[in-house]
Amino acid sequence: MTNSGIPKFQNAAVRVGDGDDARAPLKKIEVDLPGSDQILVKINWSNSSPDPETKGIAGHEGAGVVVSVGDNMHQKWKVGDRAGVKWVHSICGACEFCTNVTVPGTFQQYVVADGNYTSRLPEGVEDEEAGPIMCAGVTAYTACKRSSVRPGQWIVIQGAGGGLGQFAVQYAKVMKRELCQRLGAEEFVDRQLSEDIPAEVKRITKYGAQTVLVLPPSKEAYALAPNLVRPGGTVVVVGLPHDESVIAGARPKQMVLDRLNFVGSVTGTLKDVEEALDFTARGLVHPILTKGTLAEVDKYFELRHQGQLAGCVVLKVA
User: Fold this and answer.
1) What pLDDT, on the 0 to 100 scale, is given for residue 169?
2) Where is the Enoyl reductase (ER) domain (predicted)?
3) Core-most of 71, 87, 112, 156, by most CB within 10 Å?
């Protein structure tokens, strides 16, 4: 393993405080070096998700270039390769489900990553696009796959203007209509302007949608979802509410008589990430991005909290 050119210290956005008063000012911290089964990635672009952090460093998706390779990883990686770091940092490869571990995130210049579970970025996918695909993109893509919706059927995407939703709209189109010349939703229902969303959905789809993706982590979204699908329809559960009292489901009578299906979906496999990246490499799916810098992380957290951001926010790490 060679470490020439790697600085001893780096910039990182480190959380200070708790709750709504928390901030993440830039601080100097040491650069960790990779172990034998790891690689070190210099992050170029990171997401701006205010997710849980380790050692005060959040950020669970990012993209950059490999600057150091562990002794056991030289067959797979070399310095200069482009790599994407995901929310699920690693898998054990032994248990039935391969659970993940908790590590410092991508709000830092250099990230140690599992060499076996980091994704190689293909040509045609820019770093600022690849970062969001590592979590939001593959999560939306996998949810579309889990929905089992077929060509000619309706899929309702709650939260379509958000980080996951803008991916889901595009993946739903190209996955079912590969040769489509334009990307976009067939219809749009504004929840703030519509007095009766279920009635509006049924006006458009006749009986309700075959599938609804619940992306917003809100009680309102989960309460609404069963009323948007037709008998035999599927509700795909994706958004994770902070409120533990929120339940995904419906009244037993409605579930029985309408034969409703509820399916959980979270992120995706290495193969799912590869497939999601391929859609962007072929020019079929491109995230809608708002770009900032790591030093502006607090600003974008606040704008997201106020609901003033659409699509994904990516931060330049320098």
Assistant:
1) 83
2) 17-315
3) 156
